[in-house]
Design a protein that fits this description.
Strand content: 15-25%
Helix content: 25-40%
CATH superfamily of the largest domain: HUPs
Radius of gyration: 19 Å
CATH class of the largest domain: Alpha Beta
Shape: globular
Strand order of the largest sheet: 1-4-3-2-5-6
Number of strands: 9
Bound molecules: pantoate
CATH architecture of the largest domain: 3-Layer(aba) Sandwich
CATH topology of the largest domain: Rossmann fold
């Protein structure tokens, strides 16, 4: 039976009821979709018990309007998690996670300077802080994150290594709609026309990937291919288009072996990200 708690004390009591069980954690901000369920499914396969957190983390939003517009539906989320076989859900309030006396933050210094970190100041500080709190509260053996947030994944791996968190980070592939659009809670904020146009992210990434696989090694040319596809799609505005090193996130000049093709695009004002990793 799935249990749902708000306070840390209640959550901890349930988590430690049987100390021999191995726990997997899936951190989320709710408004769950098939991408989250994929993480839950993998967590269920690899652990005795699975915990999920649902918390729209104010500390990682650099824009108050974006925080307010972030979609929420707790009842629907809990139904989906129950169906998926989750054991424990933590749904704290912002005041519980960040009480008035709160003053500790986690800053991963270098890889957070690029891409998402450059255009969303403070975002990764908020992510690293809340994720380290989630790790301390659940004390899981494994934690599950999607490859769609490639830089977030790298930041969390770096934090786990630097701060000696005793757990394994498991990366899961991006789950896509049938037309290629990466699943995201933010897709719910797209109008029907914007939803159609949002396919341009995947189109641009696959065009660059195809060019790369056919021998185009100039990162500038690959960025140009992606930019043209986005710019020829109505309702779009580019935040960044990148061909970067997948560990340092520095922009490449020439793609020798590995590359992360990624972008953040506003489609009718909704900010979407996506990436393809070339290994
Ligand atoms: O990827 C997300 O949904 C969030 O950034 C996370 C990891 C749950 C932290 O709030």
């Amino acid at each position: 039976m799935m249990e749902v708690f708000q306070t840390v004390d209640d959550l901890r009591q349930a988590r430690w009821e049987n100390p021999t069980k191995i726990w997997g954690l899936v951190p989320t901000m709710g408004f769950l979709h098939a991408g989250h369920l994929r993480l839950v499914e993998q967590a269920c396969e690899q652990n005795d018990r699975v915990g999920v957190s649902i918390f729209v983390n104010p500390a990682q939003f650099n824009n108050p309007n974006d925080l307010e517009k972030y979609p929420r539906n707790l009842e629907q989320d809990l139904d989906m998690l129950k169906q998926a076989g989750v054991d424990l859900v933590w749904t704290p309030t912002p005041q519980m996670v960040y009480p008035a006396s709160y003053q500790t933050y986690v800053d991963v210094e270098q890889i957070t300077q690029k891409l998402e970190g450059a255009t969303r100041p403070g975002h990764f500080r908020g992510v690293a802080t809340v994720v380290s709190k989630l790790f301390n509260v659940f004390q899981p053996t494994r934690a599950y994150f999607g490859q769609k947030d490639a830089q977030q994944l790298a930041v969390i791996k770096q934090m786990v290594e630097d701060l000696n968190f005793n757990l394994e980070i498991v990366a899961c592939p991006t789950v896509r709609e049938s037309d290629g659009l990466a699943m995201s809670s933010r897709n719910a904020n797209l109008s029907p026309t914007a939803r159609q146009n949002a396919i341009c992210l995947y189109k641009a990434l696959t065009a660059a990937k195809d060019a790369l696989l056919s021998g185009q090694q100039s990162a500038e040319m690959l960025r140009h291919i992606m930019t043209e596809i986005i710019e020829s799609t109505a309702m779009t505005q580019i935040d960044y288009v990148s061909v970067a090193h997948p560990q340092t996130f520095s922009e490449l000049e020439k793609v020798e072996s590995q590359a992360l093709l990624s972008m953040a695009i506003f489609v009718d004002g909704v900010r979407l990200i996506d990436n393809i990793l070339i290994d």
